[in-house]
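> call design_seq(struct)
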């Protein structure tokens, strides 16, 4: 007769464990919503993102320590990685750069890495949590897309410039949001550019809504509605990169999914009809590729590339340090280390060594995408293509080391983690 050891878990301890698990899930979800919705953390003089960050950090730390399966690696990364990248706080001081700028950019890095670490701890409790997180992100981004539509419709009905509303929102949060009236560039154009921080999530959301429809529990009408909202939102974002990124995500999503081709045709038909009958959308599509606007948009990047190239070659291996910048090209007086050509700026700030360290860390973080098992290979190839495109986007947009980018990384992580399941059920005809 076989014998074994039965481990008895006291009801009180089990109740505490369940309560702790619910607490970390609630805090992580709340923090994610804040990152997506708020352009900054400032709300009536209070940094609400930081208020949500602090309790979440300690709850996640408690969860990581309480893990019986190799918590030491996670904790060592939690301490070792920030200490390693802390080195680059100090080199800039020899060049008489402001120390507060060094700490500001270093803090951006830490917040980004902390968001990624939260996601690791979150799904280590239960891998099925990935689906809950993906659903949450999809719905919140859809809500932000609805907000864009409502703002546009309200301004058109009241005859108020959209940029006036956007400037008011920006002033309230202490940030300048991207917006301008299209008729300023073309008298025949109607509408305005509206770009939220949540736009960074539109492409992975498009892919997730298509490729994971059945796993997420979405009907076809729900998926079509979400896609339409995302497409309208990205069009009014007026960014060529996001247009291309969402286009790639939609194509890859339909390539991975099964039995959803008619949804693609319906989506294309809806966009074409919108472009034909709504002057705002057709004007945006035509105006964005006008030669004069393209030149105005690309000219600052060419100046930055020339200045940052010289900046990089002055210290190619270890860089100049966090918070440093090319003195002959300053994009923002408040944050002079911030450039649209972010990857090149990072090379000048932390050098080849620092950037390669970030890439190695990303490789470890997204290790599930490199597990080339026989199942779901096409899905993981699509995910790798999207992740690569996201990183390459750092050559034209400052999008790699921000709090909202940590949500993008978490979304890629959880999609990649689900792709390793042998029985992953993608969308199908059933």
């Amino acid at each position: 007769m076989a014998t074994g050891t039965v481990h008895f878990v006291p009801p009180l301890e089990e109740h505490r464990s369940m309560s702790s698990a619910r607490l970390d899930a609630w805090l992580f979800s709340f923090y994610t919503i804040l990152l997506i919705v708020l352009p900054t953390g400032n709300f009536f003089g209070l940094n609400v993102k930081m208020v949500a960050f602090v309790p979440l950090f300690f709850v996640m730390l408690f969860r990581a320590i309480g893990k019986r399966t190799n918590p030491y690696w996670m904790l060592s990364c939690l301490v070792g990685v920030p200490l390693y990248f802390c080195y680059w706080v100090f080199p800039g001081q020899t060049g008489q750069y402001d120390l507060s700028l060094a700490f500001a950019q270093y803090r951006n890095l830490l917040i980004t890495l902390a968001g990624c670490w939260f996601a690791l701890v979150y799904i280590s409790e239960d891998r099925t949590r990935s689906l809950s997180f993906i659903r949450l992100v999809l719905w919140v981004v859809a809500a932000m897309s609805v907000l864009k539509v409502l703002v546009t419709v309200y301004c058109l009905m009241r005859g108020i410039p959209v940029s006036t509303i956007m400037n008011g929102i920006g002033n309230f949060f202490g940030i300048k949001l991207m917006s301008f009236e299209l008729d300023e560039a073309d008298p025949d154009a109607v509408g305005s550019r509206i770009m939220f921080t949540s736009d960074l999530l539109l492409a992975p959301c498009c892919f997730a809504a298509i490729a994971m429809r059945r796993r997420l529990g979405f009907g076809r009408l729900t998926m079509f509605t979400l896609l339409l909202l995302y497409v309208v939102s990205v069009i009014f974002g007026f960014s060529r990169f996001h247009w291309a990124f969402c286009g790639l995500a939609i194509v890859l999503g339909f390539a991975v999914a099964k039995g959803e081709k008619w949804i693609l045709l319906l989506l294309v038909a809806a966009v074409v009809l919108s472009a034909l009958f709504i002057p705002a959308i057709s004007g945006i599509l035509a105006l964005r590729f006008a030669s004069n606007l393209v030149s105005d948009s690309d000219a600052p990047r060419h100046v930055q590339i020339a200045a940052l190239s010289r900046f990089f070659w002055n210290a190619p291996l270890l860089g100049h340090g966090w918070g440093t910048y090319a003195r002959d090209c300053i994009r923002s007086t408040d944050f002079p280390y911030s450039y649209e050509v972010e990857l090149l700026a990072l090379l000048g700030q932390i050098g080849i060594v620092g950037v390669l360290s970030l890439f190695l860390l990303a490789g470890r973080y997204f290790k599930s995408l490199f597990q080339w098992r026989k199942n779901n290979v096409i899905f993981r190839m699509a995910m790798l293509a999207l992740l690569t495109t996201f990183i390459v986007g750092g050559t034209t947009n400052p999008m790699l080391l921000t709090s909202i980018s940590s949500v993008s990384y978490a979304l890629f992580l959880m999609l990649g983690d689900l792709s390793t399941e042998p029985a992953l059920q993608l969308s199908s005809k059933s």
